[in-house]
Design goal:
Length: 364
């Protein structure tokens, strides 16, 4: 395919790529002219429905009706048509309780509409995200006082969150009027730095940035300047692998969650930033600005309850079952032992489907 890192496909994608709007088609041609390999970004988006419901380019917008194919519009909506499945909303899980021998989870304690409630299911699938799943396990009482599923002492450790930057390529002579610009990626630096050195990471477009978003980050700059910059910018996202480190941790302090993120591999982000700055200047954008995301945006949180082959070093087995409690599975970004350098949602979804298939065969 167009992407040099594209793996083998048993079947082609079911749908064609979301087409580039004209300013993005131009950016694609410019990057190609440098000998790079811009490729269409795989997206869970029904673009016609999306645009019919609102001309928003903001990719984090949580309610675009049926246009964004997420957990709710995809599998959840279908699952809820099954009369055996009930969804409890507004339920905040506080802690898990084990059976007296500690080998299984006997109850889930949660708060709903201000009331303390309890459930005692046969199987417990914890999927609260890498930070909150770790926090729930660490808060739950255990004989050794280290929380649940934690015989390896790894729960909460190896917290990873990509090292990433926003990069605005600005040409004051050309407007970027795209509504949905997030259609391109570049993996030329994914497997090496392009010169035989270490990998750098993935580059892809962000949802369209506007002046309000810039104002939230650069408060001193007048809004009309930021509006001008945003409307003349093509907005990129540079993403590099964060490596697992047991001292990069999620911890709990009473009801508070403490995030001690130790970033690693920052030299990859520096290398990718330098390479892309040079490329975008060579494409004709005289102004290229970049800013790393910090701990306020743990969007790609993972690690913390990793799977592995050895109970001494991992909380979960390769099917996400807790080594210490036979009826507990943790299925969210927490199970990832490494972060790779791509958005994690599809890898999490793929493992969730694999675990579901395993559960159907072994537990139901
Ligand atoms: C702004 C933004 C943009 C992103 N864009 C992309 C993208 O383009 N592509 C991509 O692949 N990834 C993207 N991601 C990352 C992606 O959303 C996450 O990797 C993915 O959703 C993680 O899945 P998860 O199952 O681990 O956790 P989540 O999807 O976060 O699910 C955890 C759920 O548990 C609930 N929960 C938490 N604590 C409790 C509790 N105590 N009790 C009850 N419920 C609880 C939460 O409300 C949530 O519904 C983006 C993330 C953000 C924030």
């Amino acid at each position: 395919g167009e992407d040099p890192t594209e793996p083998f496909h048993s079947i082609p994608y079911a749908f064609k790529p979301v087409p580039d709007e004209p300013p993005i088609a131009r950016a694609r041609a410019e990057l190609k002219s440098l000998g790079l390999h811009p490729a269409s970004l795989p997206l869970g988006v029904d673009i016609e429905t999306w645009l019919k419901e609102g001309k928003t380019g903001w990719d984090a917008f949580p309610n675009t009706g049926q246009g964004k194919i997420d957990a709710q519009t995809g599998p959840l909506a279908e699952a809820l048509t099954d009369p055996n499945i009930r969804l409890e909303t507004g339920a905040h899980v506080d802690w898990l309780e084990t059976a007296p021998d500690g080998k299984s989870i006997a109850a889930i304690h949660y708060t709903q509409d201000g009331a303390q409630k309890t459930l005692s299911p046969k199987l417990v699938i914890l999927s609260a995200g890498a930070i909150n799943s770790a926090a729930i396990l660490l808060r739950s009482p255990s004989s050794k006082g280290k929380g649940l599923a934690n015989g390896s002492d790894q729960v909460g450790r190896n917290f990873m969150n990509h090292n990433s930057s926003a990069m605005l390529a600005i040409d004051p002579r050309r407007r970027n009027d795209s509504v949905y610009q997030k259609t391109l990626m570049l993996n030329d630096y994914y497997l090496s730095d392009g010169k035989g050195g270490k990998p750098l990471g993935n580059v892809q477009l962000l949802g369209k940035i506007d002046g309000n978003m810039l104002k939230a980050n650069v408060k001193t700059m007048p809004k009309f300047v930021l509006d001008f910059m945003a409307s003349h910018a093509v907005d990129w996202y540079l993403m590099c692998e964060d490596l697992p480190d047991p001292e990069s941790r999620i911890m709990v302090d009473g009801k508070e969650i403490v995030m001690q993120w130790r970033r690693s591999n920052m030299q990859s982000l520096e290398g990718l930033t330098k390479a892309m700055r040079e490329n975008l200047r060579a494409c004709g954008y005289p102004i290229v600005l970049s800013r790393p995301f910090d701990k306020r945006t743990p969007s790609h949180q993972c690690g913390t309850v990793k799977m592995g082959n050895d109970p001494a070093t991992s909380p979960l087995d390769p099917f996400c079952r807790a080594w210490d409690h036979q009826n507990l599975f943790v299925v969210d970004g927490g199970f990832l032992p490494t972060s790779a350098a791509v958005n994690p949602a599809l890898s999490i979804a793929a493992q969730a489907l694999r675990v579901a298939d395993y559960l159907r065969r072994s537990e139901l």
